[in-house]
Amino acid sequence: MSMATKRRLIIHAGQHKTGSTSIQNALFRPDLEVAGQSWRYATLPRTQDHHALYRMIEHGYGKSNPFARAGVAGMRAWIAGQRGDTVILSAESFSELPPRHLARALAPLMRRFDETRVLLYVRPHLGAFTSLFVEHVKMGTLFCGLEKYAELEGDRFEYAGKLARWRDAFGDRLTVRPFIRDRLSGGSVIEDFLAQAFPDTTARHHGAPEKNVALGMHDLMRLKVFHRTLARHGIGARHHLGWPLADLISPGAPRDTVKLQLHHGLADTLATRYAPDAARVDREVFDGEPVFSDALARERARAVDTPLSLRPGEWIAADEINTLKALATVFAQSHGKSPMWRLRLHLRHLERQSENNA
């Protein structure tokens, strides 16, 4: 560690569907180079993020679980002992915590560093709405349509109040970055993160690929069939299958160019709903520049005239649907009773990511 460099703690807090997996993949790769500084991505073995720390904070500070708080204390001590001018934590799930809980849990750790920066990426309203809906379908946690999703989760995309609470908790340590390609350094969330995390030097990632990109409609409907069949067999925790299945069922996702888009009727309704929030975010976060208001107008204009069908039969052939149902049934009958399948799939998914990063 350089004696002349202040120690810096970087807390990357997401949000979901803002390139977090791509950032974590880049940090995990052995070819990331930072000129003139030592750094450490302080993950536990066989993990690529800090979701476990999120869970500890959620239970320890949200539910006052003393064992979870003890786990947080242990993680703080371990992270503080990591060698490096810059130490990085990353979990998009941090964005789901009340920021006061995250600040309280990590306060002793932040005091061990000369500087702390909290990086929060925020995706404009309509893009976030669509991408999170797609993620729910992929993970098998949602089977309703877009209109019903707007009723159930619409409040999730009201940003201004949430960002105000983040500012209250972290003050000038907080940096909010818009997840808009032409607003990101180099047009890449990886480049942008590295520029924010290492502002006084040069960091190069040698072409780390983007991860967890949105699936096209054909592959999304394949996953929907699989998950719906598992649900009929009473298989819970289907989200554990989402990423491994996406890895296996859709190796050629870029070829599937038809992506889910909002139709004009819903886009107009949502744009009207979120316009005041976008204006407030622009005033309070972006110094009055219409960053989110302009993004809302652009996304509204991209809506399609006719709603895209969410019925699998409209996208994939009947014989393929029957094959997917049969495979899901075999899985449910052979593995559904054992709790170990979740752990095995998760570990194999991490191994596959490590193999790709080697």
Automatic annotation (TrEMBL):
Domain of life: Bacteria
InterPro entries referenced in this protein's UniProt entry, alphabetically: P-loop_NTPase
Protein name according to UniProt: Sulfotransferase family protein
Species of provenance: Maritimibacter harenae
The organism's taxonomic lineage, starting at the top: Bacteria, Pseudomonadati, Pseudomonadota, Alphaproteobacteria, Rhodobacterales
